[in-house]
């Protein structure tokens, strides 16, 4: 029987802390759809100030936050957004900007570090003279940190350059900042400076900083006024959301400061895994709390079998493909957990480990 669980599937798996539960139990609440929930107001005010924007809005999820943001900026059906071909909005959000908003995604190749070449972005902007034939470019989207690139950080210099390009062409810039606090800590750049060039940002509360539910979008007062209406249209008006916002306030106060430790534990795990024969880890690319693990060609096992072996020992890992796995560190993973996970990976790839156990 497994007596120890080390959940490395994602930083979304954290459980509310006792402080969060206490804050939720005592939260002062009212009807947020009517605009009267005091705890929601407090969270939104704090987030707007933290991100250096005029206003903020709590939404149930990062997917809704990105969808609302894109639809506010692309308010005419047939508009187009330029985004990375490997970004979260493009791959993991059910094509919502197209199916719900009628917004065309103009995909541009992401580099390995999550950036998109500036020249390629500019080349993708539609010539207004061709409006009879083409969608109308309205928006550029970036993702920071970039999840599919392994949690890589987009620098403030790069983000500023994209912002300047957007302004040059009369476009808006949205940042999917699901893990923007991770990027801020890793880069040593204040989070408001990191998103200064953006017209809007979505910030996930339930990933790196460990709140149980929700995201916040930030932008100008006019942007948030339009976003509030769209949130209601999409079913995101949730009445007494102060219960959730109270936990998010605790997460902001207590867990942002723990992100550096999460990053150190991720690097510790990566350094250990790259020494395991049969596995390949680019430890130099581990900038925040994610580690991608590839099975070397010729190794007689698959990711599915390694994940099963690990699960039998209480280690939960995300399978990305038949030859790739992902682990994500968070504040409820200890240094001891990291060492235990590392030892199990070592056993799984040993000669008498998973290869024999699984009949390879």
TrEMBL record:
Enzyme class, broadest EC rank: lyase
SUPFAM superfamilies, sorted: PLP-dependent transferases (SSF53383)
Modified residues (N6-(pyridoxal phosphate)lysine): 207
Cofactor: pyridoxal 5'-phosphate
Keyword flag Heme: no
A cellular component term, taken from the record's GO annotations: cytosol
Catalytically driven reaction(s): L-threonine = acetaldehyde + glycine; L-allo-threonine = acetaldehyde + glycine
GO biological-process terms attached to the record: glycine biosynthetic process; L-threonine catabolic process
EC annotation from Swiss-Prot or TrEMBL: 4.1.2.48
GO molecular function: L-allo-threonine aldolase activity
Keyword set, alphabetical order: Lyase, Pyridoxal phosphate
InterPro entries attached to this UniProt entry: ArAA_b-elim_lyase/Thr_aldolase, Low_specificity_L-TA-like, PyrdxlP-dep_Trfase, PyrdxlP-dep_Trfase_major, PyrdxlP-dep_Trfase_small
Annotated metabolic or biological route of this protein: Amino-acid degradation; L-threonine degradation via aldolase pathway; acetaldehyde and glycine from L-threonine: step 1/1
Domain called Aromatic amino acid beta-eliminating lyase/threonine aldolase: residue spans: 7-294
Coiled coil: none
Family to which this protein belongs: Belongs to the threonine aldolase family.
Function noted in UniProt: Threonine aldolase involved in threonine degradation to glycine. May play a role in the removal of L-allo-threonine.
NCBIfam families registered for this protein in UniProt: GntG_guanitoxin, PRK10534.1
Identification of the protein by name: low-specificity L-threonine aldolase
Species in which this protein is naturally found: Glycine soja
């Amino acid at each position: 029987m497994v007596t120890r669980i080390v959940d490395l599937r994602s930083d979304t798996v954290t459980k509310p802390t006792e402080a969060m539960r206490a804050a939720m139990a005592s939260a002062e609440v009212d009807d947020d759809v009517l605009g009267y929930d005091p705890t929601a107001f407090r969270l939104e005010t704090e987030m707007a100030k933290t991100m250096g924007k005029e206003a903020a809005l709590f939404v149930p999820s990062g997917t809704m936050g990105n969808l609302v943001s894109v639809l506010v900026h692309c308010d005419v059906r047939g508009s187009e957004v330029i985004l990375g071909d490997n970004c979260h909005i493009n791959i993991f959000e059910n094509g919502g900007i197209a199916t719900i908003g009628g917004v065309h995604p103009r995909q541009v190749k992401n580099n390995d570090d999550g950036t998109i070449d500036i020249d390629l972005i500019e080349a993708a902007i539609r010539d207004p003279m061709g409006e009879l034939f083409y969608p109308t470019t309205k928006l550029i989207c970036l993702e920071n940190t970039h999840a599919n690139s392994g949690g890589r950080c987009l620098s403030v210099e790069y983000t500023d350059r994209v912002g300047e390009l957007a302004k040059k062409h009369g476009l808006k810039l949205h940042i999917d900042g699901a893990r923007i606090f991770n990027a801020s800590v890793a880069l040593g750049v204040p989070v408001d400076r990191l998103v200064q060039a953006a017209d809007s940002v979505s910030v996930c509360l339930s990933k790196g900083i460990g709140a149980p539910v929700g995201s916040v979008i930030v932008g100008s007062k006019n942007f948030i006024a339009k976003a509030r209406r769209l949130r209601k249209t999409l079913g995101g008006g949730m009445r007494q959301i102060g219960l959730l916002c109270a936990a998010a306030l605790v997460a902001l106060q207590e867990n942002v400061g723990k992100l550096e430790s999460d990053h150190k534990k991720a690097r510790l795990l990566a350094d250990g895994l790259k020494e395991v024969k049969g596995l390949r880890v680019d430890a130099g690319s581990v900038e925040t709390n994610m580690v991608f693990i590839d099975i070397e060609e010729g190794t007689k096992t698959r990711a599915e079998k390694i994940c099963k072996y690990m699960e039998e020992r209480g280690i939960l890992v995300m399978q990305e493909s038949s030859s790739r796995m992902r682990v994500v560190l968070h504040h409820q993973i200890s240094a001891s957990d990291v060492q235990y996970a590392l030892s199990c990976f070592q056993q799984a790839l040993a000669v008498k480990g998973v290869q024999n156990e699984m009949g390879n």
